Amino acid sequence: MLPERLNNLFAKRGGDLLILVFSLLLAFFMWGMHRFTQKYSTFFDYKIEADSNIGGRAKSAVSYNSLVMRGKATGFYILQQRLSERADMGNINLSIDAKELKPVTGRPDFFYIRSEEIKEKVQEALGNDFELESITTDTLYFQFPRQANKKVPVAVRKDIEFAGQYTSIGSIQLRPDSVVVYGNEALIKNIDSVYTQVIVVKNADSPIQGVVRLKGVDGVRFSEDHLYYSLSVGRYFEDEVTAKVNVINAPASARLIVIPQEIKLSYRMLFENKKEMDASDFQVVVDYNKIGDSNIARPYIIKSPDNIFSVKMEPMFVECIVN
């Protein structure tokens, strides 16, 4: 009988006990949340990762010593920073002008800055959730090793498709069209040019412009990371003429036969300048002095209308028979 009475008692009181335990847990959780939202004053320890523009030297460096400071923040913020430090993510990134960094006497490549000089930058980097009270560290030290450098041209990588009857007018323009590369001398001596990321444009029917990043190279930094590009695009008219191939610079005694004697010229011009041309508008020649041992030469155009921006020849080479 006793066991049965106990079972009935627990059956009746079990629901109330469960509610009590849940209430206690909820109250503890709310108390903890309240505590974490309160602000506390404590010490923080950070390394400073400085980005600078010292000529001929590495772009960035991490401070040799830590920036120790006292500040006020919520419990949540403090916990987050402590976890970041344990995960080696506790650096503060700052942009420091070369003029603010002073060389350390007797220690080549070393520079220093007074902590008070970057106080405002530190506060800005940590955001409104942190209130900087004081800085314990007096001076921060950085090592910016020298780097070799040289100026190289930039090559454009592009994937541009044009709408029907539209094409590029001239080549794509970059500003600047060359950059200075910095890095280990053994590494950069083999770099003759750098490349942009691929510029992708589809169905282009108007001028193209924008900003493109350079394709990164491990261990190398650039004087410019972003370049401005532009490309003229226009609607074109296309037609063709047949022009005679003449010979220049041939001695009076030479007899030269060109095969074929005429070639087809396919030309393009802007649609607003549309005008049909004839053979007299072009002059195509072969230079006698540039005929190779195989008697094959490539004709070139020495006269064409000014408003034509593209001409293709067919065939591109002719045979020259000298008698």
Q: What string, H for helix and E for strand, traces the elements in order?
A: HEEEHEEEHEEEEEEHEEEEEEEEEEEE
Global geometry: elongated
Mean pLDDT: 82
Q: What does the largest sheet look like?
A: 7 strands, mixed
Which stretches are poorly predicted, pLDDT < 50 over at least 5 residues?
Answer: none
Strand tally, please?
Answer: 24
Helix proportion of residues, in percent? Answer: 10-25%
Secondary-structure content class: alpha+beta
Residue fraction in strands:
over 45%
Radius of gyration: 37 Å
Helix run count: 4
N/C terminus separation:
134 Å
Task: Supply database-style keywords.
single chain; 323 residues; alpha+beta; seven-stranded mixed sheet; five-stranded mixed sheet
Offer a quick outline of the entry:
The chain has 323 residues and is an alpha+beta fold.
Detailed description of the structure:
It contains four helices and 24 strands. The strands form six sheets. Strands 11, 15, 17, 19, 20, 22 and 23 form a seven-stranded mixed β-sheet that branches. The model has no long low-confidence stretch (mean pLDDT 82). 19% of the residues lie in helices and 47% in strands. It is elongated, with a radius of gyration of 37 Å.
